[in-house]
Amino acid sequence: MADVVTVEVWNPSYQHSEVDLSALPEVYRSIPESASIGLTLADTEDDCVIVTVEPEFSTVTMLRDRTFYNLQISDDSDEAVILVGDGEIIWPKGCLLPRPMGVRVLLEAEDREAVWARYTWVEQ
User: Fold this and answer.
1) What is the pLDDT of residue 43?
2) Cis omega before residue 92 (within 30°)?
3) Which residue from 16, 37, 59, 107 has the least number of CB within 10 angstroms?
4) Helix or strand or coil: residue 17?
C-alpha cells in the first residue's frame, strides 16, 4: 500500500486533502509560500511523521515507540513562540528548520529507520 500524506492548508481558510507521498512535491509546489501547511504521513497510533511548513521555517516530528521526537539541527534549547496553522505554540529554537527541509525529510520518511539514523532527534 502506498504511503498517504494528509495535507492541511491554512491560506487563510482551511483546506484538507490526502495525497500519495509520490505526489507531494507537485502538491507542495502548488501551495503559496505564504500559506501554513500541515503534513502527516502514516497517521496511526504507533507511527507517523508530522511536518509543519510556515513561511519562515518548518518543523518535523516523528512518533516512534509511542514517544514523539523533534528533528533537531542545533543545540539551541531556548524556546520560541511560533504560529503554526491557526495557533501559537512554544518550540525549541534548535528544532526550527529551514522552510524546505521539512518536506525534504518527509519525502525520505518512507524509510523511517534511515530517517531516524540520518538526523538528530530529541524527545518532546
Assistant:
1) 67
2) no
3) 16
4) strand
